[in-house]
């Protein structure tokens, strides 16, 4: 880690050449792991400390490159291994790592802009495609559109540079849960929130008992001047009550604005001098006026370009959730879902990505991935994890991918995150990442988050992170007793992530 002189020897060295005087230099060495000389097995920690006067040698690069395989406990060589890079500065020292060590406890690819993060993710995908892998890539910016073999390209929204074989898809509103709609529509005050929730509950009831709808009012659930017992008796039945309390119960979103107005009624009917508590009263104009800004926002969201793939009348008939189901049963190995065509307006991209993650987690809980382990790769993960949307009365925590990191492993669903802003991802998520592939990190807060998230790397080991070259990365984690610094191999299908060429476009 460092070489220094004791204070008493420091002034004895010639300032010009540093030679000419015998001194007792002190070198600090960090002991990370032990390699058995009998079978070359690698273990973390130190089994026997060196003695005073022992010689210290630098390990050859060919031996360093074999460390990941020496960490394997099985006597038979693994049938699936990923050739991800080389020992830095040595062209022939290839490093092979099994998918279990990369993805088995989840993985995160971290690095500042220009450090090689996108190339690493592309290289991991490329290596996995050599085998019968199952990968689902959430491509936030369309960088990975050039993959061809064993790849199914899909897109949400209207991206500008999709490949010709990319399938435009839609996300059905049924993939959203109640909190998604509340975060999207952001009700405010003490009137809008309760009326929105009541309208959603009424539309859920209509999806279960359509006979309660009033045809003259557009198939809505009309409460004005209606006997409460007629509706409440049905709501209180066991099965209906459970369905109404389930946030995933679907309903017709197109009727939401009109149904909110149907909820704006007085709680009791009859004259004020003799109220009838068994019936709802007339329409309440004051409540309706308080809800007008909410109705405007609902209509804006439903007709916006950002949410066209969810609510649009002309959106694609291909359901992305059905495409996921078909992909899992097909021979394709990579399903790429491009979110490039979805704007950031109304937090549409974040909510849609969270809904996709929640759908995959639900499938995992039913055992869909036990016989076909699947890895979700999330690019620009800081946009989708560790964030909350909406106001105080309509807050939505984007926790779908966080829950996958916490419980997906036991279901055969693992996650690989790629981000240039580790500080924006909660430490709870990063601490679930068993393997970290860390590129150059120049921000102090980013390095501190990485240090706290991974017990195998401390301040002295993290000190070199700002000095890593582009494409160079340190692999640390639970399954890597000895951290490795490697040069990631350049992928044959590089991501479209280069900046503008000023030499080409600005020349005279």
Model description:
There is one protein chain. The protein is an alpha/beta fold and 508 residues long. The protein contains 20 helices and 18 strands. The strands form four sheets. Strands 6-5-18-17-16-7-15-12-8-11-9-10 form a twelve-stranded mixed β-sheet. A hairpin with a 6-residue loop joins strand 13 and strand 14. The model has no long low-confidence stretch (mean pLDDT 87).
Keywords:
508 residues, alpha/beta, twelve-stranded mixed beta sheet, two-stranded antiparallel sheet, 20 helices, elongated
Short description:
By secondary structure, the chain is α/β, with parallel strands linked by helices. About 30% of the residues lie in helices and about 15% in strands. It is built from 20 helices and 18 strands.
Mean pLDDT: 87
What class would the helix/strand composition place it in?
Answer: alpha/beta
Number of strands: 18
In percent, how much strand structure appears in the residues?
15-25%
Major beta-sheet overview: 12 strands, mixed
Determine the N-to-C terminus distance. Answer: 50 Å
The geometry reads as elongated
Major sheet strand order: 6-5-18-17-16-7-15-12-8-11-9-10
Q: In angstroms, what is the radius of gyration?
A: 29 Å
Helix content: 25-40%
Count, helices:
20
Poorly predicted sequence stretches spanning 5 or more consecutive residues: none
């Amino acid at each position: 880690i460092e070489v220094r002189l004791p204070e008493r020897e420091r002034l004895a060295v010639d300032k010009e050449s540093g030679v000419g005087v015998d001194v007792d230099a002190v070198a600090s060495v960090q002991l990370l792991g032990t390699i058995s000389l009998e079978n070359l097995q690698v273990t973390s920690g130190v089994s026997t400390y060196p003695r005073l006067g022992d010689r210290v040698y630098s390990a050859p690069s060919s031996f360093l490159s074999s460390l990941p395989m020496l960490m394997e406990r099985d006597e038979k060589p693994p049938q699936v291994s990923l050739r991800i890079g080389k020992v830095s500065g040595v062209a022939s020292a290839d490093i092979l790592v099994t998918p279990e060590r990369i993805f088995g406890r989840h993985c995160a690819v971290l690095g500042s802009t220009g450090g090689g993060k996108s190339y690493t993710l592309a290289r991991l995908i490329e290596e996995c495609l050599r085998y019968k892998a199952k990968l689902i890539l959430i491509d936030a910016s369309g960088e990975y559109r050039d993959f061809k073999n064993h790849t199914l390209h899909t897109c949400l929204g209207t991206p500008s540079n999709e490949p010709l074989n990319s399938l435009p898809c839609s996300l059905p509103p049924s993939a959203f849960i109640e909190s998604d709609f509340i975060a999207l529509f952001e009700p405010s005050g003490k009137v809008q929130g309760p009326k929105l929730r009541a309208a959603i509950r009424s539309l859920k009831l209509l999806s279960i008992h359509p006979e309660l709808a009033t045809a003259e009012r557009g198939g809505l659930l009309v409460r004005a001047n209606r006997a409460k017992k007629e509706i409440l008796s049905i709501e209180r039945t066991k099965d209906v009550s459970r369905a109404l309390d389930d946030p995933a119960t679907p309903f017709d979103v197109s009727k939401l604005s009109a149904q909110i107005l149907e909820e704006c009624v007085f709680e009791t009917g009859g004259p004020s001098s003799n109220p009838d508590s068994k019936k709802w009263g007339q329409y309440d104009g004051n409540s309706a006026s308080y809800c007008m800004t909410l109705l405007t926002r609902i209509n804006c969201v439903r007709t916006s370009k950002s949410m066209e793939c969810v609510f649009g009348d002309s959106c694609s008939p291909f359901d992305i959730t059905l495409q996921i189901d078909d992909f899992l049963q097909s021979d394709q190995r990579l399903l790429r879902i491009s979110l490039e065509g979805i704007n950031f307006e109304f937090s549409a991209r974040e909510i849609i990505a969270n809904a996709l993650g929640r759908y995959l987690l639900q499938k995992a809980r039913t055992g869909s991935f036990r016989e076909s382990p699947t890895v979700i790769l999330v690019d620009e993960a800081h946009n989708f994890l560790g964030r909350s949307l909406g106001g105080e009365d309509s807050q939505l925590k984007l926790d779908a991918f966080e829950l996958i990191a916490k419980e997906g492993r036991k279901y055969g669903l693992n996650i690989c995150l790629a981000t240039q802003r580790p500080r924006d991802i909660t430490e709870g998520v990063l601490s679930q990442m068993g393997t970290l592939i860390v590129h150059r990190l120049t921000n102090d807060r980013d390095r501190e988050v990485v240090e706290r998230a991974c017990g195998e790397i401390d301040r002295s080991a993290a000190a070199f992170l700002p000095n890593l070259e582009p494409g160079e990365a340190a692999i640390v984690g639970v399954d890597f007793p000895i951290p490795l610094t490697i040069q990631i191999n350049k992928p044959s299908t590089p991501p479209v992530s280069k900046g503008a060429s000023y030499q080409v476009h600005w020349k005279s």
